[in-house]
Each structure stands twice: as structure tokens, then as C-alpha cells.
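Notes from the pairing session

We agreed to fold both candidates in a single pass and log them together. This is the raw record for the first candidate, unedited. Please don't reformat it; downstream parsing expects exactly this layout.

Candidate A
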Amino acid sequence: MTAPRREATGPSRDLPVDEHALHDHIERLAASIKGDPRTYRARARFLPDRAEIAAVLERLDWLMFPGFFGSREVAAAGLEDHVAEVMRELVPRLFDQLSAALRYEREPNADDDRFAQLCEASDRRASQVLGSFLSRLPGIRRLLSLDVQAAFDGDPAARHTDEIIFCYPGIRAMTVHRIAHELYRLEVPLLPRMMSELAHARTGIDIHPGATIGKSFFIDHGTGVVIGETTNIGDHCRIYQGVTLGAAFFEKDEQGRMKRGAKRHPTLEDHVTVYASATILGGTTVIGAGSQINGGVFLTSSVPPGHVVRAPRFDLTLRNNPDMPPASFSI
């Protein structure tokens, strides 16, 4: 028997809880919110908007891969018109998010005499950042084109570079990273990290926007990949699913708080391959050019150029399976 459908509770409907108990819950929850400023923002207008950032990334996709995403009718003769149309939609939306992020960093207070000055300064800086970022878009496209080719060259299962662009999570993650990294270099607060977490949620690949990644980079499969903030990756490198490029430990100050800004994550020189589920840790760990790190390796020390690192082989044991089904069976 189908359960009766419950209609949405509205202000005119009797609540299925005691009114006095509900009032108590409301008071206690409101007090909890007011008492913890870390999880409550009274001036949310100075925060970037997650949905708008997703929209900005979508429009940038239309510019990075025209004809693949967005409008499917982008003939060469009308390409400039397409770019102009997308840019006119993108620019004000990105400016608003940059301004919000910069105002968030300055935290202007409406009661402060300098409120208007701080807001104007944030807007001026947002305009400067926007101009610099837009000038870097051709370079980002060039790097992404090389990433696509690296993925095609490195995966025999790929039939065409179109398949790489449409289907591969590594390219999705790298598209967002190449964009977020440029904003990170321009010292934009919060926005690059929000972008990288949108990509992380979508692909399962976690790349901090501070990580420096060279040209022709390929992430195969990608699920569970973690690349930390101070990682340096050279040209023509390849990593597989489950790889962690992380910190070995965290330095602390006299008060026991973690020090920020130091190099904590490893460096991969050119033409390094790291296979599935390998873990490489430490800011002083350098994997030399042309080296290969085999699957399952746990590494906290440097490797000279041109070497292969493998974990100890496991001793395998084979025995008969007492639960083996008969030769002819059906499910």
C-alpha cells in the first residue's frame, strides 16, 4: 500500500510539533549561530557566489573549447563574434566575483568611515586583475591543447582528441586548474580555491590552485588524485589514479600553530610517470627527470634522474576455493 503523500509545510498549516518546544529549538539554534562567527557571515554580500563561479567556469569552457561546449555552431568566419558574445557575458560576472572576493578580504564595515574607499579600492583592484587574467586566456588555451594531446598520446583506449575533451576527468580538472592557478598567481583570495573544489566535486581530482604544473600533463583515470599547494610538476609528466603528492609533516611555530607558506609538497622534474596509488611526500623530495614511480610506492626521499622505484613484491599464495560453484550453474 502506498503511503499517503505529505504536503509541504507552510505557514498556515498546523505544525506537527509542540509550539513551545519549536520556539525553544529556534532560540537555541539562533544562539548557536550567533555564538560562532566562524560559521556565520552577517555580510554575505562580500562573499563570492558559488553558483556564479560555476557559471563563470562554464563560460570559460565555451572559450577554451569552442564548439565542444556552449554553442555547437561556431564557424571560423563567425568565431570572433562568438568570442565577443561570450566575453561580454563573462566579463561582468567575473568582475562581480573578483570584487566580492577582494571586498571579503578587506572586510569593509558599513559603519566605518573608510567603507566607500575600501569598496572603491577593491573594485579598482578587481578591474586590474580582470584585465591581466583576460590577457592570459590564449596561454591557458595553449597549455590545455597540449594537455589534450598528452592524454591522447598516453592512452591507447582513446580514439580521438574529441573523446579526451568530452570525456576525460583529467582534462576537466586541468581546465579548472589552469584557470584557477592564474587567479592564484594574481593573488585573488578565496575564488581560486572555490573553483578547484568545484572541479574536485565533479571529477574526484583534488588539485590546489597553488600547484605549479608544466606543459603536456596527463592525469589518467584520476579518481582520488591529490596534488598539494606547493607541488611543482615539470613538463611531459603523467600520473594515475590514487596518486598523492602531499606533505610529509607540518612545521609549527612557538604557539604550536602550523606555519603557512613553506614548501611542503614534492617536485616532479620533466618526463616523470607516477603509477596508481603511489604516495610521494615532502617539500624537499625531488623526483628526477625521466624517473618512474611504480604503483603502491610510499616515498619520502628524493630519486635521481632516470630511475625506477618499486615497492617490495608481495608473496602470493594460491589455494583451492572450497566454495567454487559447479561447472554448470545459473543465477
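Candidate B (folded immediately after A)
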Amino acid sequence: MTVDRQPGLSVRLKLTLSYAGFLMIAGALLLAVVWVFLLRYVPESVTRPPNRLVLTGPDRSELWDAFAPKATAALVFLLVFGLVGGWLLAGRMLAPLARITDATRRAADGSLSHRIWLPGPGDEFRELADAFDAMLSRLEAHVAEQQRFAANASHELRTPLAITQTLLDVARNDPNSHSRELVDALRAVNTRAIDLTEAMLLLSRADQRSFTREHVDLSLVAEEAAETLLPLAEKHGLTIHTTGDIAPTTGSHALLLQLATNLVHNAIVHNLPEQGAVWVTTSVDLETVVLSVENTGDELAPRLVSTLTEPFQRGTQRVRTHNAGVGLGLAIVKSIAQAHDGTLTITPRTGGGLRVTVRLPAAATDYAMGKSK
């Protein structure tokens, strides 16, 4: 995309004229000072007595006749010197800007892997180039993440559609098939497709930060999520322990509830077959509030833990179980935390399981005091 602009002087030419103009003004002032200095010692006219030899210097008119051509020649020399020197100096000063412009055009054409790597001291051009390189790195990582997400989403959406197509083909080719079983199977597949679509929409909403901020007590949100998922925990033979302090923050209550629900749900589903436990804790740490969810479970390698926030990652491998979800649980948690200017940290627990910590900016002190009364 190009923008039509009015024709005008280039920056290099403007700098050249500025250098030359400044040099001309400085030279003219210097010559004026010299002229004023000379006038102090030269009389306006010289009176010569008749028939008498007197050694005298020139008067002012004679001095001006001698000074003016030399001053004009000096100014012409300064003008030429200023134009040539200013042009070369401006070109040298603007050379880094040309490299930045070239990198910008490459990025506009879709090449995000190019970097400027501007050498030299840390001046303004170096800071601009480093900032541009950092922006390109973030854009490249974001584009790569979006491409992976699109590919995985296409794969995930294709699976229920393929299953639906297979069930319909079987029903059409087998007139004796039981319609009740077919309807139940189609309903389960359709529910999974709907859950996946809603999860993707929620992820998009969190990334766009299109929500209204309000005061939220993270401890109450965590308790609500734990109570909602208590029947699922009892079904798996797990116990949920909820403790913590008042944790006031600002954000979307619905999104933060989704964040806590996803964390507790993951902690329940990815747990021990029996006698497992989940710990949900909230606390206040300096200027942040902390939500921590721990669970028992299998031992996970740190390398695997670092990939769990990627979309469509399900525990140790891409497997599906009855409660495996759509593979966007922790990806949604990460997006919601970032949308609230927070961070998400996942670390393996000693003996198995995970510890997931979300840190969000704390709300104003007066709100916290009001909630504690």
C-alpha cells in the first residue's frame, strides 16, 4: 500500500540547505565583526598637509574597496563549501535511516525474518533500529503462532465433521440401523464442535481485550469455580482444597471466572486415577494478586510443560478422553491473563502434577480495604 504525497524537497536536501545556510550566516557575522573591528582604527578620511610627506594608512572608503571583494569571495566559498560538505554530511548522517527504510519495505512485502542489526554507538538511530528489530521479532512469532493455530484449528474442526459424515454414510447404507443411536452419536459430535467453536471465540475475545473492566475479587472467583466443578471432582474421586486471602483486581468477571474454571478443570481431569487432590490458593504479593492451582498427577518433564499453553495441547500427548476438552484450556488462560496485563507460569510439582500460577495487577487500595471490612 502506497500513499500519494505532494512532491517536495528530500530530507537530505533540506539538511544540506540548512547546513549551508547556517554556515553562510556564521561567515557573514564573522566578516561583519571584522569590519566593525577595522572601523575602530581607521578614520573616515585622511588630511594631508600641502608640501609635506606624511605616512598614513588608507581611509574607510579605500578600506571598503579592498575589503568588499574579498568578503564576497569568502562568502561564495562558504556557500559552495557548505553545499558540498552539507550534502556529504547529510548523506552520512541519513545512511542508517536508509537501512531502516529498506527493512520497513521488506516487512511490508511480508518478509519478517529480515533484521537491521545496525552497528555503531547507541544513538537515536540505533535505538530506533533496535526497537524495529524487536517489533519484527514479535510480529514474526505472532504470525507463526497464528499459522500454527489456524492449522490446528482446521484439523480439530475437520475431525467432528468427518465423524458426522461417516455416521451419515453408515445410516444411509444400512436401512436397519437404529436411528436413536445415530442421533446420540451425532449429538455428541455436534456438542464437541460447538464447544470447540465457543472456545475459539472466547480466545479471540480475550486476545482483542474487548471487555469492560470492573472490580473483581479473585478469591471469590476461585471459590465459585471450585464449587461449580465439585461434582466433577467427586466423580473422579478427588478432593478440592480452597484457601487464600482477598485478592482484589480489575477486569472482566466473566473472563476471570473462565480462567479459574479452566485451571480447576484441567487440574481435575489431568490427575491421578484415584486419591488425587487439587489445591486452589489466592494471595496478595506486593502490587499483584496471585491465583495458584496445584494438582497431583503424573510427573512431567519441564520441556513438555513449556508447550502446554500452546493451542490444542492435551497433557502428555494429543489424545482424547471423555473429559479431555478441546485443547484450548491453558491457551485461553494465557490469553485472559495477558489481556488483564498479567502473567501465567507453569511449573512441575515434585512427585508429579503441576503448579499453575496467575499473577494479575492488584486493584486500588481503597477497594481492597472496602472488601476487607
